[in-house]
Specification:
Number of helices: 9
Number of domains: 3
CATH topology of the largest domain: Purple Acid Phosphatase, chain A, domain 2
Strand order of the largest sheet: 4-3-2-1-13-14
Number of strands: 17
Low-confidence stretches: none
CATH superfamily of the largest domain: Metallo-dependent phosphatases
Radius of gyration: 24 Å
Strand content: 15-25%
CATH class of the largest domain: Alpha Beta
Bound molecules: manganese (II) ion
Shape: globular
Structural class: alpha/beta
CATH architecture of the largest domain: 4-Layer Sandwich
Helix content: 25-40%
Oligomer: single chain
Order of helices and strands: EHEHEHEEEHEEEHEEEEEEHEHEHH
Length: about 350
């Protein structure tokens, strides 16, 4: 691989949010900015770490816009990894990603197994955590860089769509690859000098806000911020009537995307709040989503979930704490005894 080269994170081209075509367009705009930033620094090889496209298919107009970028930068060699969004989910049909390979300046790695390129290792999205883990631990070839698409050191109980690289896998990869770039998580994180979670090219939701970067790799790694077309802002309001709500939302900036969260809303005033906020939405030319939280349903902020617990043990503790439930426990034990396959 020729130095310098660049790395770009999840682009999610065709991203659909808030029923906003404007936001979908901005997604392609951010991707183009990312390419341009690297191009202007002399980069002619760009690796993209998965989820270039938001789905296995994309609207015609998004496809055209993406091709316009690839045409404009036709002397860039794009090396693109299959992510969980754009790999062929049914494993039989063709993904829009695979069709992109017909372009002269694009190489796609989307075969559900490890592929070795010129100076790099590509680990695309795979069908199971087991295959992913075995594949990573089987690597015995040295490379300048490795790209993959997964959660990193996650303690979450992952769904079939999420792969996870654990510490053992990461240690193994680090032995063979000088630099590791990981796509999938949308907020960028530098784990150490060698391991980068790239983050997406655009802020995609209110849970993952913050700056976005492209990565310029020469002797060292330089992070270059990607400009964002619109700010995403969250407004928290404790309900104290319609007038107060309308007051707080009267001068919204069209250059922002808002999430309005109304808390402590009495059940009896839900309808009037809904009507008020709908009237704000109708008159606002930007994008706004809202969450109306009734009294007794306060939003729980989850910053960390450790799913390493045993459900039966937890249930036993629960029963111990609630003596009245002891009969239920016995009843369940009896049932389990009767039917082995429960
Ligand atoms: Mn992903």
């Amino acid at each position: 691989m020729l130095m310098p080269y660049g790395v770009i994170g999840d682009a999610h081209l065709g991203f659909k949010a808030y029923d906003s075509t404007r936001r979908t367009e901005e997604c392609t705009w951010c991707f183009e900015q990312a390419v341009k930033l690297l191009y202007d620094k002399g980069v002619r090889t760009i690796l993209q770490v998965g989820d270039l496209i938001d789905d296995t298919t994309w609207p015609n107009w998004v496809e055209k816009a993406a091709h316009a970028v690839f045409n404009k930068y036709s002397d860039i060699n794009f090396i693109i990894l299959g992510g969980n969004h754009d790999s062929t989910k049914t494993y039989t049909s063709v993904s829009a990603l695979d069709v992109l390979e017909e372009r002269h300046n694009i190489t796609i790695h989307n075969s559900f197994k490890i592929e070795y390129g010129n100076g790099y290792i590509a680990i695309p999205h795979m069908k199971s955590q087991k295959e992913f883990r075995e594949a990573v631990l089987s690597i015995d070839t040295y490379a300048d860089m490795c790209m993959l698409h997964s959660m990193t050191l996650s303690k979450l109980d992952l769904g079939p769509n999420d792969l996870n690289i654990d510490q053992e896998m990461l240690d193994h990869l680090t032995k063979y690859c000088k630099r590791i770039f990981i796509g999938h998580q949308h907020s960028p994180v530098i784990l150490n000098d060698n391991v980068y979670i790239t983050g997406s090219t655009m802020e995609l939701n209110f849970g993952e806000l913050g700056p976005r970067f492209v990565y310029l790799i020469d002797d060292k790694v330089e992070l270059v911020p990607i400009p964002q077309p619109r700010l995403m802002k969250r407004i928290d309001i404790s309900w104290s009537g319609v007038n107060d709500l309308l007051d707080r939302l009267h001068d919204l900036d069209e250059q922002c995307i808002y999430k309005v969260v109304v808390n402590y809303l009495p059940h009896s005033e839900y309808s009037i709040c809904l009507a008020a906020i709908d009237s704000v939405c109708v008159n606002f030319k930007g994008d706004l989503i809202y969450d109306l939280i009734k009294v007794g349903h306060e939003e729980v902020e989850i910053s960390h979930i450790d799913a390493n617990f045993d459900l039966i043990t937890e249930f036993k503790h629960f029963c111990d704490d609630h003596k009245a439930l002891v009969y239920l426990e016995e009843a369940i034990a009896e049932l389990v005894g009767e039917e082995d396959d429960i």
